[in-house]
Amino acid sequence: MSYILALDQGTTSSRAILFNAAGEVVCTAQEEFEQIFPHPGWVEHNANTIWSSQLSVMQAVVAEARSKHTMSLDAIAAIAITNQRETTVVWDRKTGLPIANAIVWQDRRTVDFCQSMREAGHAQLVADKTGLLIDSYFSATKIRWILDNVDGARVRAERGELAFGTIDTWLVWQLTNGKVHATDPSNASRSMLFNLRTLDWDQDLLDLFDIPRSLLPHIVPSSGILGHSEADLLGRSLPIASIIGDQQAATFGQACFKLGMAKNTYGTGCFMLMNTGDQAYPSKNRLLTTVGWQRQANQAATYCLEGSVFMGGATIQWLRDGLGIINRAGDVEALAASVPDTGDAYLVPAFTGLGAPDWDGRARGSLVGITRGTTKAHLARAALESIALQVAGVLGAMQKDSSIALSELRADGGACHNNLLMQMQADFSGVAVVRPKVTETTALGAAYLAGLATGVWSDTEQISSLWAVDRVFEPLMDEAARQNKIARWRQAVERSLGWAEN
Ligand SMILES: Nc1ncnc2c1ncn2[C@@H]1O[C@H](COP(=O)(O)OP(=O)(O)O)[C@@H](O)[C@H]1O
Ligand SMILES: O=P(O)(O)OC[C@H](O)CO
């Protein structure tokens, strides 16, 4: 039994990947699903569609493994789960049916409520307990919104009839046909209801956000058998042996096991996480402190500092779908490389506000410094630069917070295949950027945690030895030019802040 079936439930697609004991991809399947935008600033998913797409890709992968690779189901040691974080589902415990669409992490409907909580002076308490800033990004205010806006929901929640879960919890519920209602500390630490030090739900926070405890899942370690899938789903019941939020999973999959090692994932958003060991560092520079993973119950967790950037690869999707200046995301590299610079134009992609380090829900996108000479190539280059500059800002804050000088930044996610973007990243942050051979690090990290629990891998040293470099991008820009670039970017960002009126 030396294969792991990893489920990677992301913001725009559900994926299933089968890994072998060398940490290599054996087969993979992916299905996109509908993004629902009922009002400006709102983003929803249908939780049933999430489950049906996830089921269909896991069945497809198992079917391919059996037919193409003549593998028996007995060769799969376990299922691993990793997921888009914060996205909130509330469902009926009896019927298993969601009572509303899932509210996605990007959804901004609770911005005003969050502001009122900050104005009422709750920010310090929340930061001390959770490591988070009060923001609509996290689950707590999304749960509260559902309880207050879906007919009868609060009364039913108080009677214990409803369950809350992030997507990991929802998948486990579906896989076990409602037998297991669980999450892990990496996901729970994004709820704004979880105490980073006790590694448990916090009653003061539940009271503050007015959320009944009966809604909440049990907390289990990120690694370890927590239940078994129903036999009819895949033809045999399989142990479920890990749960971990996707960004923490990528940190594990990048083998960032030592203090100060960091990765950035270039997906829809960009998420940089640095391992800070068994210390939950409070950030002084508006980063988040979060649980990386907890390997065993009653053991200390590994913590991370995180900088979350909302618009990463999604900026390139906007060039493709919103402006129509490219046909495929990959085309942006050649277009941007056709000009030597942006002509001092900057794009600030604050389309849904700004995350770290500005955290401004009212910021909106801006394009500054354009002239009659600005072309779509300059715009494409400014879009790529905006990704690298946002990440460089997070990296700067992280270095200030932890006083650790990074020796390298490990890169992954769909946009890490863009060599120009990787070079910009090295230049703007003054640090070597390293792309590994296997870039499916999110699913891989979850697979490693499940495989550690089921004997596929013995320890993290063995996993570190499987990590291999594809390409290193060294910084080439001189320091004065780098500082100037960052200063100009900050001027552009200032023009985006606070733009939206409501
Ligand atoms: N060559 C590329 N250059 C820049 N961006 C890219 C490139 N290829 C893909 N992307 C962007 O990367 C994102 C997809 O990456 P992925 O890791 O699959 O995202 P997610 O897991 O968040 O859905 C999309 O937003 C897409 O626009
Ligand atoms: O699904 P992704 O890869 O866009 O990741 C989403 C993050 O987990 C949100 O915090």
> Sheet bearing the most strands, described?
7 strands, mixed
Oligomer: single chain
Low-confidence stretches: none
**What's the total number of strands?**
23
Beta-strand percent range: 15-25%
Question: Could you say which structural class the secondary elements and strand pairing correspond to?
Answer: alpha+beta
Instruction: State the end-to-end CA separation.
Output: 55 Å
Bound molecules: adenosine-5'-diphosphate, SN-glycerol-3-phosphate
Provide the CATH top-level class of the domain at 86-165 and 185-219: Alpha Beta
Q: Number of helix segments?
A: 17
Rounded radius of gyration (Å): 22 Å
CATH homologous superfamily grouping of the domain at 86-165 and 185-219: ATPase, nucleotide binding domain
Return the average pLDDT rounded to an integer: 95
- Range of helix content: 25-40%
- Overall shape: it is globular
Widest β-sheet, arrangement of strands: 17-18-16-15-21-22-23
CATH topology of the domain at 86-165 and 185-219: Nucleotidyltransferase, domain 5
Pfam families: FGGY_C, FGGY_N
Pathway: Polyol metabolism; glycerol degradation via glycerol kinase pathway; sn-glycerol 3-phosphate from glycerol: step 1/1
GO molecular function, one term: ATP binding
InterPro entries: ATPase_NBD, Carb_kinase_FGGY, Carb_kinase_FGGY_CS, FGGY_C, FGGY_N, Glycerol_kin
